[in-house]
Amino acid sequence: MSSSCRVVVLISGNGSNLQAIIDGCDDNLNADIVGVISNKPDAYGLIRAHHSEIDTSCVIAYKNESRSEYDSRLLAAVNKYQPDLIVLAGFMRILTDEFVSQFLGKMINIHPSLLPKYTGLNTHQRAIDAGDLEHGASVHFVIPQLDAGPVILQAKVPVYTGDDATVLAERVHEQEHAIYPLVVKWFSLGRLKMLEGKAYLDGQLIGPSGYAPD
Ligand SMILES: Nc1nc2c(c(=O)[nH]1)N[C@@H](CN(C=O)c1ccc(C(=O)N[C@@H](CCC(=O)O)C(=O)O)cc1)CN2
Ligand SMILES: NCC(=O)N[C@@H]1O[C@H](COP(=O)([O-])[O-])[C@@H](O)[C@H]1O
Questions:
Q1: Domain for residue 210, yes or no?
Q2: Does the interface predicted TM-score (ipTM) exceed 0.95?
Q3: Of 58, 65, 103, 129, whose CB count within 10 A is highest?
Q4: What pLDDT, on the 0 to 100 scale, is given for residue 214?
């Protein structure tokens, strides 16, 4: 059996996606979360990690610290774990090109929209305001350009009349918790790769809207 995939998860908040991946790793013996790093000391995801006896650390931004200086400290904290995969799970900082370039093809993110729609923040309200009938989440490889990396897997949810951002977010979260652990499993089994800026599963090119079974 190949050695386990060493996974480091970066968070900023509640950590429900972290929890889904923790739970998923219990079944997927090929992945092992070796560290959780937060930029916020009060992130509930740190509690979740502690409950699962996962090592945690905080990298808190100093006042007047440049983005590059912060990312240098974050890089040192990440590399202590010697990860095979970095998972951004509600990590709410834009990472510098220098940081991202260290982990091309081994860093993924979950974004609460059907990319390429609604990169950035406040995606649920933007979908509601636009009158969209469907919304969702996307798992993608991380590249320097924000939320622009090749999409790996998407999940769609309906948008109902009367939805507010909180209700829609909860509907999206349910789908996030299903797809993110699956993508981590694919990567940990060596099935998922990023080559020349494109995502491949089992050697097959993944389309712009993510993997779609035949
Ligand atoms: N270089 C990259 N960095 C990050 C990516 C990426 O694709 N490339 N994904 C994001 C995750 N993300 C959306 O999925 C995201 C996170 C944060 C922000 C943002 O505007 N952050 C602000 C601070 C906001 C806050 O503190 O609430 C900032 O960093 O100035 C946008 C999108 C992770 N990083
Ligand atoms: N742009 C990044 C972004 O908005 N990510 C979103 O933050 C939430 C984190 O929830 P969690 O802390 O419960 O996993 C998730 O919905 C994720 O899609």
A1: no
A2: yes
A3: 103
A4: 82
